[in-house]
Amino acid sequence: MNGQLAAGVPADVWPGLGWFGSIVVLGLCLVTFLLWRNMNKQLKRVKVPTEAQLRAADAERRAATARPGTPAGTDGDGPDSGGIGAAGSADALGPDGNPTDPRP
Fold this sequence. Notes:
By secondary structure, this protein is mainly α. It has a domain at 18-64. The protein contains 3 helices and no strands. It is elongated and about 90 Å long. The protein starts with 17 loop residues before the first helix and ends in a 17-residue tail after the last helix.
């Protein structure tokens, strides 16, 4: 090769990383560090509910959506409950919330 690169540029003219490249790389490292710190600070502010809180919220939701006369722990949508599942769809409910006969 005798002092020349494969592209045909002599080795003494080939630009290296130089001071400008070093500044750019250091700047990118600094920005990455600052973003990482900010992300950690934001993640510490996130409140994650405990397993007990999730269970309590689920029980509350089920109690709020349970129909009168359904046993505890069911949502009234089973095929034997007379709820939406027995009628076939939510459109088959009358204005009072009871299933209507879909036949004409």
